[in-house]
């Protein structure tokens, strides 16, 4: 009898057991019960037998380390049974050969390090699309109804949810459903959004429904059961549609019949695409049902967890502006010049950003009780007997704040994760053991890019003097109770060159002046004609004589100009060439009347091209500088160059589809580049 000592349990009620103690948020209630009853205690949950709650690192280590296999099962919650097709998703499946198979396919095919790197493009693209949406909103506010330029208020929770939904769907099927102009929402997108909303609504309602006695569930008072079934049907149709579309697309690309076209093979594939390729090799290994279930697992387990983490991290940073500044300095210093946006490859080098994410996950683990496990055999934890079939809740929230392990456990101190300083301490936001989250790398990449891009692109401020409310809400994951709102302002350099900048850009002016000295567009000015006799340099010039002034030669006079054929900008710096004759616009009465206009047009076009693109010669050789002939002085050989769009932090007008195209380097006649620059500037304005 002594050997089978069960863990202590609070006083319960008949029928409901301890369900009446379930105050929200649950992890806080369980932490309070642990303080009274110890780190391992039992609960009776309505019709279910028991749950053991574990709230200390050693006990968690015992359950998920020593007894990993025994606790590798999952309880069969009725709602999950409906939505996960009889517990057939990875997160709900019983421990056994089927789960092993699903997990192996996921880990090797869609969550491997290689695949996570491949998805990095989609992650960065969506993070930037969100940054662009915020920029557009800021610019709309600036230009609309006379609002003052500057900071804009934003409700971040929904933006982050959209970001993560888009990121997940981009990965799953190369489609996104949020963020377009609202009046352009497609039927498919509307349907998808409704499905997502119903899933969220039901995830709350089904928690209680799961623990009702079977008879009450059967009567389906409140209609939760019916809604679950309706949602399941909607999801099935939606996912099968995605799979069928992708299959058709692959067949069309020649990817479905074994005759792979190079273009199709080189295309980074979506999760569904990858899984369909596996299916083609071996239909039994990866049937459509498995593909659907992996998509559902990813959406359910990956979206809220990652979105909540970024929202908590942003809240912590708003309450700790010094940490925000340090993170931004790290990003700026690492990126250096020219400015470009954060990429997935940068993340491993941004140690401080990583520490911020780890510290956020310590304080606010998105799954504070992990996902319920269930024991498949009797075992002993902390000296207590735990019978087979017991549900296990591991209170990581409580474990991560254990004052015996963590100094100032409730304070936000990212430095505690610097240089492996917290190694050996139990921080398990992704769980541990066989059921550990299989997508830690993927999650860290999505969170890193989302959070990093927000820190890099915007200045953030709290909406008031008070600190951001950090109360936890309740749900399957751990959302913030009060959705985060903040002021933001796009950071510099965020705008494209404007005419008013030109006078301050001395170096750009020097470039233009030196170009006009070497290559005056009117090398002989425009012919003049003498209307009276006169004398020039002691010579008689009769009335009616045409006058050609060779500015080309004058500008290259070695008596006046040092190294006259060299391109030396400094000679125009600080008025150094004042008094020397540089007259690209002519002089006197017939002088070009539009010098200012010309300088502005050239300045804006050239400046925008320099600002927006990286330029390179098309070959090793220098650009041929021979002059052609004509009234003005064109280049004899039209200029071609390689260009690559730079990424000024924001204000970029492209759609995500065009973004993919932007990476390509291509030679193009400069005249096209000039149009591109102008279009760019126009669109941004
Ligand atoms: C910050 C991001 C994330 C966090 C903190 C997180 C955390 C967790 C945790 C705590 C568990 C339960 C572990 C346990 O029961 O012991 C879990 C399971 C799981 N996670 Fe994640 N997760 C994240 C992102 C993702 C993403 C992006 C995906 C998929 C694309 C994903 C897929 C899964 C799946 C399928 C399971 C169930 C594994 C199983 O039962 O075998 N997670 N995650």
Automatic annotation (TrEMBL):
PROSITE patterns: CYTOCHROME_P450 (PS00086). Its cofactor is heme. Heme binds at residue 437. Keywords: Heme, Iron, Membrane, Metal-binding, Oxidoreductase, Signal, Transmembrane, Transmembrane helix. InterPro entries: Cyt_P450, Cyt_P450_CS, Cyt_P450_E_grp-I, Cyt_P450_sf, Plant_Cytochrome_P450_Monoox. Pfam families: p450. GO terms for molecular function: heme binding; iron ion binding; monooxygenase activity; oxidoreductase activity, acting on paired donors, with incorporation or reduction of molecular oxygen. This is Ig-like domain-containing protein. The lineage of its organism: Eukaryota, Viridiplantae, Streptophyta, Embryophyta, Tracheophyta.
